[in-house]
From TrEMBL:
Matching InterPro entries: Lcp-like, MPAB/Lcp_cat_dom
Domain of life: Eukaryota
GO molecular function annotations of the record: oxidoreductase activity
Domain ER-bound oxygenase mpaB/mpaB'/Rubber oxygenase catalytic: 105-313
Record protein name field: ER-bound oxygenase mpaB/mpaB'/Rubber oxygenase catalytic domain-containing protein
Membrane-spanning segments: 318-340, 399-425
Species whose genome carries this gene: Penicillium vulpinum
PANTHER family for this protein: ER-BOUND OXYGENASE MPAB_MPAB'_RUBBER OXYGENASE CATALYTIC DOMAIN-CONTAINING PROTEIN (PTHR37539:SF1), SECRETED PROTEIN-RELATED (PTHR37539)
Protein keywords: Membrane, Transmembrane, Transmembrane helix
């Protein structure tokens, strides 16, 4: 079968095939149907798998997602996945505080997110843990990204979820045209939105988030990481042309920053809700002030000011410097020692996913990415209230303290060495002359 031609992506194009299939899948009786027969809890992936042979459109989608593009190199995919776990903590911080919070500056995207209600202060943490589950699944193994693997299935489930959100909002527009201004915001979850989303998980990490923490990927690591997310984009029905090579990927990222980032009042509310919802909670256990300082570092003062992220005091600015020193030291030292690099990658793979499934600190069980946050004519996202500010346990800020201690120790050692050299070397020269 010939693969579909990659699209360039626009706000007026979207994943038509997925929409047609979701409409058909929602008509198939399922054990997940509630008493009111609403289709929102259906396992759409399971229905697609089980009924693909019964409908031409379902078969078309099933064939597409199970056909591997010719450009896929599985060794490269595995290396790209290793990049994620090699720089685990700094990449997770990019995803949380630059890709996510900074992404709330995208005017059109936040209009869709706010209508789902999934970014309310009380539910946003679980919503973000589900996103993290998706990231971990696509980063786990090359086998997992092959058809039928956990990463592959995760991509398809999210693709069908996006289609469900899009179809729901468009159906509400039919009822009430003023509910969502299509002429202003474009079709919900359109191709351009999806390209932007992949960008926040990929190119923004490489060329914005990591460098602002003092970490620079090699050319090989860059190509491998982009290749991984290009495959994710393909499975999710997102145009893959923008990730064809590193030059094009960077150009698209820069274009999106110029054209799409236009903060609105809605985006400011979502930013505040994210920080409120994550404050002193697993897995980071970070204070509001630390998250704000991290967000300002990763997004820059201009965007942070436009999103009304408060400026940090001297204490938290110094703390961020300590954090950066620590992650830089670990990121440059560990990969230099091959066996240590492999051990750390393996440990992080196991640790991160175990944390996601933890009953107390994580989701408790794997998410099927069901259509839980259903838009309605009366649903919107309001500013939440800040909860307890009491620290429950040590978290990411402890790394910052370790970094400050390490930096102080390094400076003290170098200073003592310099003083020693200044005092001893001249005297030795004098003795030689005598």
């Amino acid at each position: 079968m010939a693969l579909k031609s990659p699209k360039s992506g626009s706000s007026t194009d979207w994943d038509y095939l997925a929409d047609e299939c979701v409409e058909r899948l929602n008509k198939i009786p399922s054990a997940d149907d509630g008493a009111d027969k609403r289709p929102f809890k259906k396992d759409l992936y399971g229905l697609l798998r089980d009924h693909a042979e019964e409908d031409p459109k379902l078969n078309e989608l099933w064939t597409e997602i199970n056909t591997i593009p010719q450009w896929v190199d599985w060794d490269q995919i595995q290396r790209g996945q290793d990049v994620f776990f090699r720089y685990g903590v700094p990449i997770l911080n990019v995803l949380g505080f630059e890709s996510l919070l900074g992404g709330m500056g995208a005017m059109r995207v936040v209009e869709t997110l706010s209508r789902t209600g999934s970014f309310g202060a009380k539910v946003v943490r679980r919503r973000l843990l589900e996103t993290l589950q998706h990231v971990l699944q696509v980063s786990n193994s090359a086998e997992g990204m092959k058809p039928g693997g956990d990463g592959h299935i995760s991509c398809v489930r999210v693709r069908l979820l996006h289609s469900s959100v899009r179809k729901r909002i468009l159906s509400l527009v039919d009822q009430s045209p003023e509910y969502y201004e299509i002429n202003k915001y474009g079709t919900p979850v359109n191709d351009l939105d999806c390209i932007g989303t992949i960008n926040t998980f990929c190119t923004s990490v490489i060329w914005l988030g990591l460098p602002r923490q003092g970490i620079y990927l090699s050319q090989q690591e860059t190509e491998d990481y982009i290749a991984l997310w290009r495959l994710v984009a393909y499975y999710m029905g997102t145009p893959t042309d923008p990730l064809e090579n590193t030059a094009k990927a960077r150009a698209i990222m820069e274009s999106l920053l110029v054209s799409e980032i236009r903060p609105t009042e809605t985006g400011k509310i979502l930013v505040k809700n994210i920080i409120i919802g994550l404050e002193n909670t697993a897995p980071a256990f970070a204070s509001k002030e630390f998250m704000e300082a991290m967000s300002r570092l990763l997004n820059g003062d201009q965007l942070a000011d436009e999103l009304e992220i408060p400026r940090s005091n001297l204490y938290y600015r110094v703390l961020i410097w300590g954090y950066c020193f620590w992650v830089m030291a670990v990121s440059y030292f560990v990969p230099k020692i091959y066996f240590l690099d492999r051990i750390m990658i393996s440990l992080r793979r196991k640790r991160f996913y175990k944390l996601i499934l933890d009953d107390k600190m994580g989701l408790g069980e794997e998410s099927r990415f069901e259509f839980k946050y259903v838009p309605s004519l009366t649903r919107t996202t309001h500013l939440g209230k800040r909860g307890s500010t009491k620290f429950e346990r040590l978290g990411i800020e402890s790394l910052a303290h370790l970094g400050l201690l390490a930096a102080f120790t390094a400076v003290a050692t170098l200073s003592m060495g310099f003083v020693f050299a200044v005092r001893i070397v001249p005297s030795q020269i004098f003795m030689v002359r005598l």
